[in-house]
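Hi everyone,

Forwarding the result from last night's run.
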Amino acid sequence: MLRFILRRLLFLIPALIILSWVAFALSQCTPGDPVSRILPQEELLLDNDPLAYERLYLEAARQLKRDGPVFYFSLNNYASAEFGDDFVLPEQQRWLQKLSQDYGKAAEVHTYFEQLRELSIAGPQVLATPARELLIKTEASRIEAELASLQLAAADSTIQAEWRQKAAAVQQQWQQISEQPARANLLWPRFRWHGSNNQYHHWLMAALQGDLGISYQDRQAVGDKLWSALKWTLLLNSLALLIAYGVAIPLGLKMGQRADSRFDRRTNFLLLLLFSLPSFWVATLVANFFTTPYYGMDWFPSMGLGEIKASFNWLDTLWIRAQHLFLPVMMLAYPSWAYLSRQMRAATIQELKQPYVQTARLKGLSWPQILRRHVLRNALFPIITMLGSLLPSLLAGSVLIESIFNIPGMGRLLVSATLARDWPVVTSILLLSGIATILGLLLADVLYRWADPRLRRAAANTGRA
């Protein structure tokens, strides 16, 4: 069994790697700039230094490990801009890439960018203004018009000769770019290896150490927020899973034993009726009717987890938590009863037709003994197989249930983070959900092997061979 688990864990490594790629890609594709979200805007308003924003942005990008290449390698063409060790702002990167792709001259465009940047930062105001305009324009006609304004301003006799020469160099550099475009560079692919100094590698190493980034909403560590919510989601879903299987397995056995009876038909009808009712709708009705005195059925406490005072002992704490968790756990568990019990019913009917059941009856065993000792274990195989798909469905269902009952778990955290566009929290929750799905499949494989002795004997025979 240990060797089987180790082999399964090795097979899960590629799935986990692919999952990390998906989670990282989602973090890169989310709208907005994560670096600018953490910049102290009030300091930028008070600072008159034109490079203040770039310095603060670069420092924030280094803290978030977003100042390097995205992946271990990149595949583009020879016209693609290459920044090397120089970090530029995202809007500057887009400007450089656009001109490089339009004219096929990445090196010349980069030189043009440096010339304009020097003029916009250190040059006289009459030259700095058109230079800043040129740093945001990519259409040839608008660039030509702004360059004419730049040369007209440089013709002023009050401008130093050094700056007039630099303005003329900008004009010459643009002519070199635009008059002889090298669009053939667009056709040739170029592979660049960046090594481990890339954003994905830093993100992966941090994630393996439990560092999932910083929340945009309150600047807290994402890992701390997830851990405080994860314990309630695990408790909620574990109880729901136990109740789902605890009800469905004996009920399915009984329905299979009494197939086509009145009990079987009525139970089938009730289970299908429950399955057809959306859990979020039932949860809303239950929360309105059973937690408020207005309808005269104030049987359960209000939303949340209850207030735990320092003077309470563990029994008091357990009682308060149980009262608050009963309804959300039942709302998560009842949709699973229908298909789990029906699968158990079908497997039981199939097993009752096997010869070993007749042999057990001839030996004098009662029906409860036959069902418990022989039929149950063989009928569990489809139920065990469904465990891998049941775990992610419970996690998805807890999103709405936790929001309705105000449970501070992963579901409510996901809703609040999505509304606030707190993308590091959202992508981290999706990553954990994917890991839970993979672990659920692993658990189903292990339980399936444990329940089926034929698989263990086959593995032992293979090992001896």
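The first strand starts at residue 73 and ends at 77.

Cheers,
N.
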